[in-house]
Amino acid sequence: MTAVVHLRDVLPDLPAPEPPRAHVCVLASLNYPDISDADVALIKRFTKVALSTLYELGADFEFFDTSEALNNPSSAAYFDGLLLLGGGDVDNSCYGMSTPHPTTYGVDGRADRDAFAAIAAAAAADRPIFGICRGSQLLNVFRGGTLIGDIEDYALHHGAPGEPEFVDEPVDIIPGTRLAAILGTDRIIARNGHHQAVDKVGGGLVVAARALDGITEGIEDPKRFFLGVQWHPEDDDGPATDRMALFGAFVDAAEQARERSAAAVARAD
Length: 269
Known about the structure:
Layout (H helix, E strand, L loop, with lengths): L21 E7 L8 H20 L2 E7 L15 E4 L24 H16 L4 E4 L1 H9 L4 E2 L18 E7 L4 H6 L3 E6 L4 E2 L7 E6 L4 E5 L5 E4 L10 H29 L1
């Protein structure tokens, strides 16, 4: 795979927090098969905003780029939290679909398997996990859920051919969920540009947000911080308040996981 996005392209133009509140594992593929020039620009912008937001909230990070095979994806367990960003489509074989939809793009089954290994390790270590777009879909598939291969009536979710890919989409937040507590509202205007979405919800997960057409836009585990949103809060064309609320809740949870780990070590000593 020829790299078109480099790590240096997405690093924050800010000093790292010292000392950090939390040390986060950020996992994404900066490059994937058949990536378009438009998606290169989006990956650069969205990833830089996400990483800068972590710095602004007092967390630092290590970036796991699944464009190439990870040496040890299970080392995600040694961080205070796991953040999964967007990218190409999840390999349809991961959720039992024998034939990919003709619109499927950017598939890298090895990258998916590395991501699942990182999710498994972070979950086993009781670390908070937050997934965005592809990241949310990976969380659902990891729990045994499935995905819609392509949303036929897509007008709410992405632009038409020849139009801007991303649209401002109303999304209803389900009352009583962790997501509702984080965002403090029952509806947001989300930045969306997706053609796939959660179909069958994975084991132990509940729907936390829906589009106006009923498409699932958010999932969560009510018992732990295992949260996915289909939209892109890290799109800086969208509301900064929602981005800071979501990333802030994740960093808070990562800081709490860090404190639990430190307390466990102290007890062992």
